[in-house]
Design a protein that fits this description.
heterodimer, A: 264 residues, alpha/beta, Rossmann fold, 2 domains, four-stranded antiparallel β-sheet, 8 helices, 37% helix, B: 340 residues, mainly alpha, MetI-like fold, 3 domains, two-stranded antiparallel ribbon, 1% strand
Chain lengths: 264, 340
Amino acid sequence: MAAYLSIEQVSIEFPTPNGPFKALEDVSLKIDKGEFVSLIGHSGCGKSTVLNIVAGLHQATRGGVILDGKEVNSPGAERAVVFQNHSLLPWLSCYDNVRLAVDTVFGKTMDKQERHDWTMHNLKLVHMEHAARKRPNEISGGMKQRIGIARALAMKPKVLLMDEPFGALDALTRAHLQDSLMEIQTDLNNTVIMITHDVDEAVLLSDRIVMMTNGPAATIGEVLHVDLARPRERLELADQADYNHYRAEVLTFLHKRHKHPAAA
Amino acid sequence: MTTRILSFMESYGLSWFVPFFKLFSGKDPVNQLKAIFASIGVPVLAFLAFLLLWDLGAKQVETSLGTLPGPAQVMEQAENLWAEHKAELAKEDAFYARQQIRNDAKLAKDPTAEVKWRTYNGRATFIDQIFTSLITVFVGFLIASAIAIPLGILCGLNQTVYSAVNPLIQIFKPVSPLAWLPIVTMVVSAVYVSNDPAFPKSFITSAITVTLCCLWPTLINTAVGVSSIDKDLINVSRVLQLGWWRKIYKIVLPSSIPMVFTGLRLSLGVGWMVLIAAEMLAQNPGLGKFVWDEFQNGSSNSLGRIMVAVFAIGLIGYVLDRLMLSMQKMVSWDKNAILR
């Protein structure tokens, strides 16, 4: 059976004044429905580029992406993106930010009341119904990212793409959001690709960790299956041998075998 | 309640009123008085110093129309102009009253009689001329905005359109209204031919000249505002697959509104400045024509009356700018942005 989401031999070149720059070379990855996959690698290795190609925001120079039997060649709501810096529209309230997505995606299939209920449902999912009427600049960074997640979830995407969703947050807030995300994942069992540079985050959340080599011409170095039972508790995991083993694997890959060129 | 009134004042351009409000609600009177002095006292003192210098300086200048008028003479002429306006209004009322009585009498005698209702053709007073000027500038400004905002959005969204339009903007932007006016006059005369014109030609000519000169700031600022939209927000619209209109309406316009308004304010300022020159040459019965007529008239009061017009032009320009600023603050989503 073909995979739900299949990234097939994707390469991408960006034109620069000094000739084309090859950012990705021959990236292939198959992801099953309901799987949570993290992409990890040093900055500049093209993680975000992979995500943007899946999102349809970039076009692969060679190769392609197939989602649920259809080729991806433009952005679309079935591949919702959670952006790193939340990217909420500052002139709309939190509710209206989510509602805009709901209206655009379900404008024809749901009536007004249903769309309102669905918007509120998604705000509840991320525990933000209390801030529905607030503007993004009136809430904290973590809250903004919650709204960003609610907006993406509200689109009922086939695959949820998260571009370092918690990268800009402090450690405590990040932990809260990771817990919320796991809680949501238990209920919805979405297919997720998440980009991260945080090893703990990757091990805690993922079913599989895809480790990328350094650019230019970055590709997938190794794939690590994380066989930890769910639900996962960060405190319990901290003492588990398996957990630490996985962490060590990722760390070894990142810091021994593919040391960042700038750090070398 | 108090805080709500205060924040309303702050956000709608009435911030100078805030210390007064606080003073009357009995909050910390010493500091409020200090704030009033800083915000109002200093400018008033500076203005008084200006009046003094003006008075002293003007006395030194002898012109063929007499001594250059000082503040007192100008004030006197302002009162004269107001009195003339009142007198003209009274005359108009009297004219209509007489006409009413005459026609009523005619109809009472013979209900089928044909009565004539004439409109009063009095002289346009200074106040009428101010309104003519305001209407002219707004018509010119609205036409300019209706062209500049959509074109600016296109320029901001599409690099090709921008490259196409940019040279034209750069060439026409510095052109003086006086250079446009003869061309506009001839074109209007050739194109706007009607036996019963709804608007006088001079009005059309002046308004179009204003349009030509105040297109550019709005056009440029809108283009810059639109092209500097956060790339992530554009990506959001792509992921949401917003249609073209929805993208403009939901993302492009709100995001560029501050820059659009900066452009609009500059445009209205330019338009008001240009209007006076345009009216002078086109003989549109507004403030420009007033200044020109007084200059041609050459009575001993003329210079004083022109100075009244100068102040009126300045004050109205200032009020227009404040109105635009208040509008900008009203529609701007970022209430924390400092606008001045």
